[in-house]
Design brief:
This protein is an alpha/beta fold and 488 residues long. The protein has a domain of 281 residues. 48% of the residues lie in helices and 10% in strands. It is built from 17 helices and 7 strands. It has a 7-stranded mixed beta sheet, with helices on both faces. A hairpin with a 4-residue loop joins strand 5 and strand 6. Helix 13 crosses helix 16 and helix 13 packs antiparallel against helix 17. It is globular, with a radius of gyration of 35 Å. It starts with a helix and ends with a helix. The relative contact order is 0.09. It holds the Pfam family DUF7924. It comes from Coniochaeta pulveracea. This is DUF7924 domain-containing protein.
Length: 488
């Protein structure tokens, strides 16, 4: 029996009983692997199928010895293709991508799974708000009372839980657990717009289900500055700032795989909340609280698991922030009505808690963006008014200079109390005040002539120039906010 098992047909078996079409599909599948830099960056390489495929690829590249120039060209072409980055499109997403090597890559990038054992034996950090979370997520819900969710409803749920495919689980099982909630959500969409947390060397996150905010609730400036940290896809109507997700698996699905998917999703949510929380701040703040949550459901066991994800400050200069996964609780949803109610209560409460965090940080980020816009508008208005006043003063001075250079008869400068002469009146000069007192400084008044001469020689900026300066300052501030968010 063991021998039969070992001689099981393999994807790279070239025996004659396999048709060409199957051989081609197998070859295409074997090329779906992480790029070489993924393996070069691992602190240790676990023995996985993907690791063996990469080893085979490198051995073939080093042992290749072409016998002709034509074969040399072909070999170089194939070698170049083999070092291209992995195709991370949704069509190539497979559970095998979330193997031990993926988890090691997450750890090497400071994204730590549940119960990770640190090399220096320091304890796994828990969120600072864990006690408050336990109080909040255990609150009873009227929608799960006996009158709303009866024993018969539970038996119907248990019948639906016998689903054999992941799609059926998402369609028939998860809606019963989630209940009716007015929270924007989506699912099964690849996060193509989110900046990779590991340098793009692994697959993109594709949660089966995630909650987020309506895009219109976030200020346009905040969306622009934090786009690749909070906007998961290119679709305009997909919820943004996702900080709650769920991954489901059919009975044949691997529990370890779904945990790694949840780890990835939760870290993205934690980074998004941290970016909104620190929008406009000079230095990032790490309060140690959890604002991102993930969950998993395995149809084979009926187990629902919930986790928190929080960010901690880098432990040394130049290092990354740490992202930590902590278990909130686990519930066997098909055991009894009581266990279902317990798990569904926590699930629904955590969704509400996540929405509260999300809305709070969006509101604070919007407020900072609007305050900046208002201050910039006021500064621009003051600058424009100053330019206008300078322009008027310069024009007045220029007119006076032109008047002095005319060939008109000499004017009589008179003191206050004297009657104006007919000459000055006939020239249209304002004689309500003495020209001498207007342009000749007294002992206790500041010199005006000198300042006006300076403004005349140094022409004031135009309104257009002031407007461009305001726009440039605005752009620099938003760029600075984006750089600070990316750095955090």
């Amino acid at each position: 029996m063991a021998t039969t098992h070992l001689k099981r047909p393999r994807g790279d078996d070239l025996s004659q009983d396999r048709g060409p079409s199957k051989k081609i599909r197998s070859t295409r599948k074997s090329q779906r692997n992480f790029p070489p830099e993924f393996w070069d960056g691992l602190s240790q390489i676990p023995l996985t199928r993907r690791a063996l495929r990469e080893l085979d690829r490198r051995n073939m590249a080093s042992n290749r010895s072409p016998s002709s120039s034509r074969r040399t060209k072909s070999a170089r072409s194939k070698s170049a293709q083999s070092t291209q980055p992995t195709d991370l499109s949704p069509s190539t997403r497979a559970s095998s991508a979330y193997d031990d090597a993926f988890e090691q890559h997450m750890i090497d990038n400071s994204i730590y799974p549940e119960q990770y054992e640190y090399p220096d034996s320091r304890p796994t950090p828990e969120p600072q708000n864990m006690d408050q979370l336990r109080l909040d997520y255990s609150a009873a819900r009227a929608s799960l009372s006996p009158s709303q969710f009866s024993d018969g409803a539970f038996r119907e749920f248990k019948r639906k839980s016998k689903a054999r495919s992941e799609a059926t689980v998402m369609r028939n099982v998860i809606p019963v657990i989630a209940g009716n909630a007015n929270i924007p959500n989506e699912g099964n969409l690849p996060f193509t717009n989110i900046t990779s947390m590991t340098g793009g060397a692994t697959v993109k996150a594709v949660p089966d289900f995630f909650d987020g905010a309506h895009p219109g609730t976030i200020d346009a400036a905040v969306r622009d500055d934090l786009s690749q940290l909070i906007i998961p896809t290119k679709h305009a109507d997909v919820p943004v700032a996702p900080n709650f997700s769920l991954e489901a698996k059919a009975p044949s699905g691997g529990v370890d795989v779904v945990l790694r998917q949840a780890l990835h999703n939760g870290a993205i949510g934690a980074r998004a909340m941290h970016a909104l929380q620190n929008y406009g701040e000079e230095e990032p703040v790490f309060d140690g609280n959890a604002y991102s949550y993930s969950s998993t459901y395995h149809a084979g066991t009926g187990a629902l698991q919930l986790y928190t994800h929080h960010v901690t400050a880098p432990t040394a200069q130049g290092e990354r922030p740490g992202y930590h996964m902590t278990k909130l609780g686990g519930y066997f949803m098909t055991d009894s009505r009581d266990t279902f109610v317990q798990g569904a209560t926590v699930f629904r409460n955590i969704r509400d808690i996540a929405q509260g965090h999300r809305d709070m940080f969006i509101q604070s980020a919007n407020t900072r963006a609007q305050q900046y816009e208002e201050s910039t508008s006021e500064e621009y208005a003051d600058c424009e008014e100053q330019v206008y006043q300078q322009a008027i003063s310069t024009d007045e001075y220029t007119a006076f200079q032109d008047f002095n250079n005319t060939a008109a008869p000499p004017r009589v400068l008179y003191s206050v109390g004297e009657e104006p002469s007919q000459e000055s009146t006939s020239l249209g000069v304002d004689t309500s005040t003495s020209l001498a007192t207007s342009f000749t400084p007294s002992s206790n008044e500041p010199t005006q002539t000198g300042s006006k001469r300076n403004r005349a020689h140094n022409s004031p900026p135009s309104k257009a120039q002031s407007r461009e300066k305001g726009k440039a300052a605005n752009k620099r501030t938003h760029q600075g906010a984006s750089r600070r968010a990316s750095k955090s």
